[in-house]
Design a protein that fits this description.
Strands 1-2-3-4-5 form a five-stranded mixed sheet, with helices on both faces. The two termini are 29 Å apart. It is an alpha+beta fold. It has one domain (3-131): tt1808, chain A, CATH 3.90.1570. The protein has three helices and five strands. The model is unreliable at 126-137 (pLDDT under 50).
Length: 137
């Protein structure tokens, strides 16, 4: 399955869930429901996946946890807050950077419409295309 197909499936299921359940539930509820919906579509999903990284010769295990990893290539960071903050996209980009993955989705179920709370984040874009999200490598 191509990246666009995977992200499309995630967005499709998230929209169905948001339409049916609406905003206001805990993030953990949306996580469980979205994971099950994606699995029912035949996608592999890992929940609360620990992210290990190294710094200055030290290894930090389980320093971070990714909400969902779909098909081993798409990180999904879920929120259930009134409004996305810039730090949420930066958090997702950090996960992508540490895991060396190409794309992630930030999905905030707390918005009135899911379109307002949806953001696709791409790792390693040229700085001109993603200035505010770039991590120096």
């Amino acid at each position: 399955m191509e990246l666009d197909e995977i992200t499309g499936a995630v967005i499709d299921e998230a929209m169905k869930i948001h339409r049916k359940l609406g905003p206001g539930l805990l993030e953990s509820v949306y996580e469980v429901v979205l994971a099950r919906a994606l699995e029912r579509r035949g996608l592999s999903v890992q929940r609360q996946l620990p992210v290990t990284f190294e710094y200055d010769g030290l290894t930090f295990e389980q320093a971070f946890k990714v909400d969902l990893l779909v098909e081993d290539v798409v990180v999904v960071e879920l929120k259930s807050v009134e409004k996305n903050a810039p730090v949420h996209a930066k958090q997702l980009l950090t996960y992508l950077h540490l895991m060396k993955l190409p794309v992630g989705l930030l999905i905030n179920f707390g918005n009135a419409t899911l379109k307002e709370g949806l953001k696709r984040v791409v790792n390693n874009l040229p700085p001109v295309e993603s200035t505010q999200l770039r991590i120096n490598q």
